[in-house]
Design brief:
Blueprint (H helix, E strand, L loop, with lengths): L7 H4 L2 E5 L3 H14 L4 E5 L2 H7 L5 E4 L15 E4 L5 H4 L9 E4 L2 H20 L2 H9 L15 E5 L3 H12 L3 E6 L10 E4 H10 L3 E4 L13 H6 L5 E4 L8 H9 L5 E4 L19 E3 L9 H16 L15
Parallel strand pairs: 1-2, 1-3, 3-4, 4-5, 6-7, 6-9, 7-8, 9-10, 10-11, 11-12
Helix pairs in contact: 2-11, 5-7
Length: 327
């Protein structure tokens, strides 16, 4: 739990930078000091260090926070996640309601995720997985390929990253439709579907269904057998959001039975993906180890530094997390 600290902590805050990778923690610290040379910075790279050093920290920034650390955060005012996913802090019972939560701007992460999604789509239509398999066999056997242009790509999750992906997909000649929790027009997509009632209609229209959703109570297990059964048999699922949004057993069954064509999964419900998962065994599933949106310190640090400027002046912070929604 947290308690309020005196006003001096706004102007001269102690910042705990946490990352399980020591070089990354040091890099964040160096980037912060370059713009704020007078702030007090401490580092942690494991649970023991985090629990010991969070006690007198006003600000915690970084990623992969040990859940146990926040019970010892007695003067915490602000937590900043360098990633876009914030469910670990948004719903944490030891982070009091007076603590401000912020996250990086999705626009900082989007360029890499755009290339991942486009790469997946182009790889599928050009049938690169088949080409790779034939190359391993040293077998020359021509096969027909398709064209991405003109296909319908559905983006489920139209936040910073989803909207950026939608713009890039449209720029490559594909029709873009979108799905979100609540109705709202969005110029970047041809049509926006909203809510659970319109999810089946949305899914049925997709040649490629791209998931860019956060993990919340409303999105967990959202994509089930019922959704897969209504999709085109030629459709592919591409998940770069959160693995928890997909019923993975239902997905494996749908692919094995030919109810959908396949899936490209950068995220799964349990990471690393367990060795016993059926997803490993399916030819039409491509699994990557959560690489589509790497957090590069120099690419995301400005979001924190701009907010640190505001924090030290007692101003409101940008990119605040809505705890009720979890993003």
């Amino acid at each position: 739990m947290s308690r309020a600290c005196d006003a001096s902590n706004f102007t001269s805050p102690r910042i705990l930078v946490h990352s399980p990778t020591p070089s990354e923690a040091s890099q964040y610290a160096s980037l912060i000091r370059a713009r704020h040379p007078d702030v007090d910075i401490v580092l942690s790279t494991n649970s023991a260090e985090a629990e010991a050093r969070v006690v007198d920290a006003d600000i915690v920034m970084g990623s992969f926070f040990p859940p146990s650390m926040f019970a010892r955060a007695t003067r915490l005012r602000w937590v900043h996640k360098v990633s876009a996913g914030v469910e670990d802090v948004a719903f944490h019972p030891d982070i009091g309601p007076d603590v401000v939560l912020t996250r990086s701007d999705g626009a900082c992460i989007a360029p890499r995720m755009i290339e991942y999604v486009l790469g997946a789509i182009f790889s599928i239509v050009q049938r690169f997985p088949r080409a790779f398999a034939q190359q391993r066999e040293r077998r020359w056997a021509p096969f027909p390929v398709s064209l991405a242009r003109g296909s319908t790509v559905g983006i489920a999750g139209l936040g910073d990253i989803g909207s950026a992906i939608a713009r890039a997909v449209a720029a490559n000649g594909m029709q873009v439709i979108g799905w979100r929790r609540t109705p709202a027009p969005l110029p970047v997509v041809d049509r926006v579907y909203a809510g659970r009632t319109e999810l089946p209609v949305f899914a049925a229209a997709c040649d490629f269904l791209v998931l860019v959703l956060p993990a919340t109570a409303e999105t967990r297990g959202l994509f089930t057998q019922d959704v897969f059964s209504i999709m085109k048999r030629s459709a592919w699922l591409i998940n770069v959001g959160r693995g928890a949004t997909v019923d993975e057993d239902a997905l494996a069954n749908a692919i094995a039975a030919g109810r959908i064509a396949g899936a490209v999964l950068d995220v799964v419900a349990t990471e690393p993906l367990p060795e016993h998962s059926r997803l490993w065994t399916l030819d039409n599933v491509v699994i990557t180890p959560h690489v589509s949106g790497p957090i590069v310190p120099e690419e995301v640090i400005d979001c924190f530094l701009d907010n640190l400027d505001a924090f030290r002046r007692g101003l409101s912070l940008a990119r605040r997390v809505d705890r009720a929604r979890g993003y």
